[in-house]
Input
Amino acid sequence: MFINSYRNTIISLLLLCSLTGSLRADESDSVLQFLKISPAPEASSLGNAYISIQGNAHSLYYNPALSSFFTARIGSFIYTPDTYSLYVKNRSPLLKSINFSLSYARYYQSLNYGSLFSTFSLRRIGTFGIGLISLIYDEIPITDIDSSGNYVETGKKMNVGDYCLIINYGYRITENIGVGVNLKGIMEKLHDVTGKTFAADLGFLYIKDQWGVGLSVQNLGMPIKFDQEENDLPLDFTVGGHYEIKYKKLLISPKDKITASAKVTKGVETEFITGLGLEYSWQGIVFLRAGYQIAGVEEGFKAGAGIKYINMNLDYGITFHKELGMVHRIGLAYKWDNKNTGFVVEEKGKLLKASKRGLEIGIQSDKIFKPNTAEFRDDAYDTLDKVVDEVKRSPGYVNIIYIVRIEGNTDDSKKKELSLDLSQKRANAVFKYFADKGIDKKNMVAVGLGENNPLVTNDSFENRMLNRRMDVVLIEKKEEKTASKFIDELPKAEREEIEKLFYFGLDKYYKEDRAGAVQMWKQIKTDNPELQEKIREMINKAEQEMKNKK
Output
């Protein structure tokens, strides 16, 4: 039959005419060039420079490690003392987020290219994903050779299609690092001839604040077999990254973003493929994109746009191929995050809640500070202003019977000295902001506790996130107010050490660890007689309370 004897000719023509306008025949012996077609319109619009950009479920196609960052967003930026026990008891929910996306493109020569991807993230386990890609050609008439050697139609038609099933797993090793793997089942069908094989993709991702870099290796596997014939897979190595440009003069509003991205791909048997992209995000609602790819199956200029409504994204992309014209893509994506994280509760009404220490608010550091710095995020000020307003409205503050104590806390991911230093700098930054907003400096104290005051054990990403916090406590204790006043008057070198011992002890005292408080306070050495007297009074009070309890 014509099908078997001319199978390779048909495949070559299909690929050459419909896919490889810019990929020369001598660059690769592979027939599975559909694995090089970009399924996501937003990625295609950016020149396929998408290896470090966390978008929708389609992301795992470009870098398996991208799925590792599909974790639930924090549902609220403020927590209060009465939520501590809720978190410890209930923990965070198992299911963190679900992503779903699909796309379609009418390719050249009656080719239909479609994809469907989905991911779901589980607490402490990682993210699992599944994807299906298909490239289906409209039915082709089957011909035969008559006795005169001419091609004649038989009235029958053949089905031609390529399919790829992807199973993904991504794991977030640290806050900034993720890894991932794709397992692929690949099938190419030409009427009654079918080739099958398996392959794998490996990915690495590092994201930090405004930028990220990624690495991926795609299509590691055995050749695909057609009867006795074998064809190699298109093995590719890709490196790329992105950077968020924050040049305010280019932005319409503070919530807008400009993201530049780039990638370089090198195949075992192909030339270097370079992709460049630029995206403007307006209010996180409207997205405008442009990109260019140099060489490869999809060489040419690209553009696109997207719109987001609640959790739904609609994206469009167009590719201008030099030789084969335009290709239009359309995609739809949905993302659901489980905001019931188990340890963050969005309070309605008053933020200050009564605790054993006084009135208290906790602010998660990740929501107001840039990573590993004491510099405020651009979106931190709304949060801080809410806390300032709440403190000022407190009757205790109005009557000046409270000390406003600002505590910086960290997790255990750094050396203790570095944690203490960072927590103190962050507490000082909040202190200064509160002072600028009109809270009296004389009635405030800023202290860094480092990793020494965790809410929960530092045994998971979620727990460390919870322990990285700023506690603002309004303490109604005259003797403590007096003691803190004397501490503030000490020379800086002496004050810093005494301050830590004093507030560590105070923290233990209000947690009903009287013995721990006494142990801390007894370590305070000072020549200031007034401070000595106040510390001695506090120690005597704690020791007496221990005796009464017995």
User: Anything to note?
Assistant: The two ends are 98 Å apart (CA to CA). Confidence is low (pLDDT under 50) at residues 1-30, 72-91, 341-349. The CA atoms of residues 199 and 261 lie 27 Å apart. The first strand starts at residue 78 and ends at 79.
